[in-house]
Specification:
The protein is an alpha/beta fold and 224 residues long. It contains six helices and 13 strands. A hairpin with a 5-residue loop joins β4 and β5. α1 packs across α2. The longest helix is centred in the first third of the chain and has 17 residues.
């Protein structure tokens, strides 16, 4: 199967699984990226209703609104029932690297509010140890050089990504790190002055992961 077919397949299977659980009063959290765009397409084809959605990016908000899905400010909802998103890397313990699309801070906020975090990926995103994919780190623009210096002391090589996030910040893509202890690395990078958040999702890991495989099947994995 092609990469696009894998994304459509995993999005469809994950949606059919979640569709049985969705209630009319639910607030859904919706992530960002091409795989999530496929999931949004599934949402629009369903007769199942839900109250509203909170979005992790301007791009996702625009796509949801184009389908007449009610998108609300996350500050106005008491809880998010389910948050669904993709990932750039997934390790065996369900720790993730996210932020390739630049929405890591908003994604982490929604994930932290959700009663359940569901991740949908294809098998190419599975790794034994995080870090081959550069770790995105969102930083305040005035702190990009000091943060890059501190990251180099940790063994990383930080490259400034062009453009700004939806929050008006910069992203440093950090290569050369072996994320063997994801909790430690997430806290350590987050503690650098000027960092908004690191794209390591270890303190808020998904409870469920759907993995599309090349033979057309989708593996549903549930965490401990």
């Amino acid at each position: 199967m092609s990469p696009d077919e894998l994304k459509k397949n995993v999005a469809k299977v994950a949606f059919l699984h979640l569709e049985q659980q969705i209630q009319p009063n639910w607030v859904l959290g919706v992530g960002t990226g091409s795989t999530i765009n496929c999931f949004i397409d599934c949402l629009t084809q369903s007769s199942q209703t839900f109250a509203s959605a909170v979005s992790s990016s301007v791009q996702t908000t625009e796509r949801l609104k184009a389908y007449n899905i009610n998108v609300v400010d996350i500050n106005t909802v008491p809880e998010v029932m389910v948050y669904i998103d993709g990932a750039d890397e997934v390790d065996p313990s369900f720790a993730l690297i996210k932020g390739g699309g630049g929405a890591l801070t908003r994604e982490k906020i929604v994930a932290s509010m959700a009663n359940k975090f569901v991740c949908i990926v294809d098998e190419s995103k599975l790794v034994d140890c995080l870090g081959e994919f550069p770790v995105p780190v969102e930083v305040l623009p005035l702190a990009s050089h000091p943060v890059a210096t501190q990251l180099s002391k940790l063994g990383g090589h930080a490259k400034l990504r062009s453009g700004l996030t939806d929050n008006g910040n910069c992203i440093l893509d950090v290569s050369g790190l072996e994320i063997d202890e994801p909790d430690y690395w997430e806290r350590t990078i987050n503690d650098i002055p000027g960092v908004v958040t690191a794209g390591i999702f270890s303190l808020h890991r998904p409870q469920e992961i759907f993995v599309a495989t090349a033979d057309g099947s989708v593996d549903h994995r549930v965490g401990p």
